[in-house]
Here is the input.
Amino acid sequence: MVKAYILIQTEVGKATAVAELISEIAGVIQAEDVTGPYDVIVRAEADTVDDLGRLVVARIQQVEGITRTLTCPVVNL
Here is the structure.
């Protein structure tokens, strides 16, 4: 199982709506709107790195109001 944090920047005033829509996507564990340089932080998981990539590109980045994402896979050192 691959887990990741996805940091999201949104259009002004869209963070809450984006977080709500993303939280309904399969593979998303949690989506919260936050303050700071990013507007939404998402915890997600997928079976493989390729599946994680498809989740981000085909599902999450398609949500209206998102301007940029940064995916940070979790590593177990």
Q: What stands out?
A: The helical segments are 15-23, 49-60.
